[in-house]
Each structure stands twice: as C-alpha cells, then as structure tokens.
Amino acid sequence: MTWYEWIFWIVWAVGILIILAYAFVLPFGAPYLPTMKKDREKALDLLNLKLGQTLVDLGSGDGSLLILAAERGLYAVGYEINPILWLISRIRTLRYGRKVKIKLKSLWRADLRKADGVFVFLITHKMEQLDKFLTNKKTKKPLPVVSHAFEIPGKKPLKKSGPMLLYIYK
Questions:
Q1: CA 163 – CA 93 distance, rounded (Å)
Q2: Contact (CB, 8 A) for 56 and 112
Q3: How high is the pLDDT of residue 13?
Q4: What is the Cα–Cα distance from 162 to 37, expressed in whole angstroms?
Q5: Cβ neighbours of residue 75 closer than 8 Å, sequence gap 6 or more
Q6: Could you report how far apart the first and last alpha carbons of the chain are, in Å?
Q7: Would the pTM of this model clear 0.90, i.e. be above it?
Q8: Of 117, 114, 141, which Cα lies nearest the Cα of 58?
Q9: Which of 53, 89, 98, 170 shows a CA-CA span of 20 to 30 A to 114?
C-alpha cells in the first residue's frame, strides 16, 4: 500500500470514530454545540456564585465554561458522555488542577449534592426529563440552574439574560 492510501484509510477511520462518538450521545442528551464566551459569562453572572463555590456543568463539552468558572475562583465539575470531548476538555483544563474535574459520565447520573449552581445546554425534548431529574435531586439548599436557550416546561424562569434562563430548584 502506498503512503497516500495509508493516509486515506487513517482519515477514513478517524472520521468514522468521530461520527460514532457523536451519534452515541444523541439518545442521552444533546449534540455538542459550544456556548459563546459572552453567553458563558452571562450564565455565570446569573448563577451569581461566590469564590470557592461549586459549579456543575451537565454536558460540559470542550470544558470552556469550566475554564471560565475556574478563572473566576470557582470549583467546576463537568459531566460529559462523549469520550472525544471528555478528552479534549481534560487536556484543556489540566492547568487548573483540583479546581476542575470532568467525569466521563452521563449528565443523568450527575451528583449534585455539592453543587452551588448548575448549567445545562440541552434540547427541547430533554427539558421535561431534566425537570424531573432536578426535582428528584433533594438538595439541602436552593439550587440555581441556568439553561441555555431551552425553557423547562411548566416553569417560569426567574431571570433571563440573552439566551440564558435562570431557575431555582428547592
């Protein structure tokens, strides 16, 4: 086989792996779509977390929100089911040490006991499931939740900032 045939097959195999990794997550949540920096800032502003508090990002993608949270002095925990995005975010957040943790786990299995705020960017047909998930997670304190663009059915957001919607779960 020639070198360009090897390149062709390597590129083809990597492409198939990427497609499989992205297709795998669709039944569990939403496809990866990065949140713009100004919207990440709006989300953290709405959550109004203080130094040393913990943000949980349900479906943390490439880790961008976790990085911004760490730069603001927060602890950040991300849940990401896509192994490619998990690896990218792990590499991107290494410099933040213990301030950032990323778990290769479905957002539906997230531990919210230590969360002081939650961010999520899902899709419409998963919002009712998110409501049930958050309602069943008995926390000791009110839990602010920011959803990017998608409303939680039957709930009225307390505040809006651009596409960000703030809810409180008790």
A1: 26
A2: yes
A3: 78
A4: 12
A5: 52, 53, 54, 55, 69, 98, 99, 100
A6: 63
A7: no
A8: 117
A9: 89
b/e string for 97-106 if b means 16 or more Cβ within 10 A? Answer: eebbbbbeee
Contact 64, 36 (CB under 8 A): no
- The one-letter amino acid code at 131 reads D
* pLDDT single digits (tens) 9-67: 888 877 776 666 566 565 666 677 789 999 999 999 999 999 999 999 999 999 999 99
Going edge to edge, which strands form the sheet with 75-80? 100-104, 75-80, 54-58, 117-120, 143-148, 164-169, 159-161
| Beta carbons within 10 angstroms of residue 111's beta carbon | 12
Q: If you count them, how many residues does the chain have?
A: 170
The 8 Å CB, 24+ separation contacts for 149-153 are 149/121, 150/121, 150/122, 150/123, 150/124, 151/127, 152/127, 152/128, 153/127, 153/128
> Which 3-state string (H, E, C) describes 105-122?
CCHHHCCCCCCCEEEECC
